[in-house]
Amino acid sequence: MIIDVNGIELQWTVTGEGEPLLWLHGLMGAGEDWRHVFPEPPTGFSVIAPDLRGHGASTNPSGDFAFRQCAQDVLALLAHLNLSAVKAIGLSGGGITLLHMATMQPASIDTMVLISAPPYFPAQVRQIQRQFSETILGDEEMQRMRARHRHGTPQIQQLFEITRRLADSYDDVSFTPPYLATIRAQTLIVFGDRDPLYPVSLAFELRNAIPDAHLWIIPNAGHGPVFGEHAPGFAKTALPFLRGQWGKESA
Known about the structure:
CATH topology: Rossmann fold
Structural class: alpha/beta
Order of helices and strands: EEEEHEHEHHHHEHEH
Helix content: 25-40%
Largest sheet: 8 strands, mixed
């Protein structure tokens, strides 16, 4: 399904039945990436999975990109779907988008899981962003990129350029403690303790600043520790959290 919003065509899918669960993929990803975490839609949830602007089947004619703008796009989608509040999972850049949504319109996010999402870009990430290219990704990942992004080579090159521009952007991903303190959503922060992009100390900064936050550090795990061998453990932990079951069993 596609809607025109904020100068782009935004594509999204809805899969499963039950309570709305928003899935936001990371930079260079696509909405369908949730299937690498959950083989089927989680029981009791209807997964809403948009392709963020310029990703997947969504367009980005201007080439402009900010996670804040992605948040505005997704909020417009929720309004289109007549959803005043949702539960949500955001991976990396999708988690940054969720942070914007939860601070721009705190009532729009009821419960959220943030996976490998930083409050700001540390120096080592900016260095990688400046040099981002096909060579860094490698042939296997480039094949996945071509399968994900429906508008071909120009779209992929635009995403590379967007990533390089992020290296010199300081106002879009800049969540200070007072800003994070405005978040109302019950929040689960998920980090791998061996994330090569974002040091685990950033997870503690988020935990200390968001009022109702829980922190889950996954041992010996890297960036986005919810795929492959980590997927079953993530589902076992995150789904009860999203269902509001944490604390009920012990009570």
